[in-house]
Design a protein that fits this description.
Helix content: over 70%
Largest sheet: none
Number of helices: 2
Strand content: under 5%
Radius of gyration: 31 Å
Order of helices and strands: HH
Distance between the termini: 74 Å
Number of strands: 0
Structural class: mainly alpha
Length: about 100
């Protein structure tokens, strides 16, 4: 009978250890999931910024091909940047 009680005590100790490990792993998993979601959000934002910058770069390349002198280029760039800002504001208002 005494051997049976020792086996039960040993089993209880092992079970408590497994439960403790399970809880720690569960908490670690939750933290990793939160970190993963945050990183996915950051990646999405970075991709959007990259896309916006590529669009602006393309607009500037087009502007450079259309103008001749440096003064004309500067004026054209300023106008295009102003138009892009206006479009961005309109998009922001539409998304609200």
């Amino acid at each position: 009978m005494e051997g049976f009680l020792k086996t039960i005590d040993l089993l209880e100790v092992k079970l408590l250890g497994v439960l403790k490990n399970y809880q720690e792993l569960k908490e670690t998993n939750q933290k990793l999931n939160a970190t993963n979601q945050r990183l996915l959000d950051e990646l999405s934002n970075q991709n959007q910024q990259n896309s916006d910058l590529e669009d602006r770069l393309q607009a500037l390349k087009i502007a450079n091909t259309m103008v001749g002198s440096k003064e004309d280029k500067l004026i054209t760039k300023q106008k295009i940047n102003s138009l892009i800002r206006d479009i961005d504001k309109c998009i922001a208002l539409v998304n609200e």
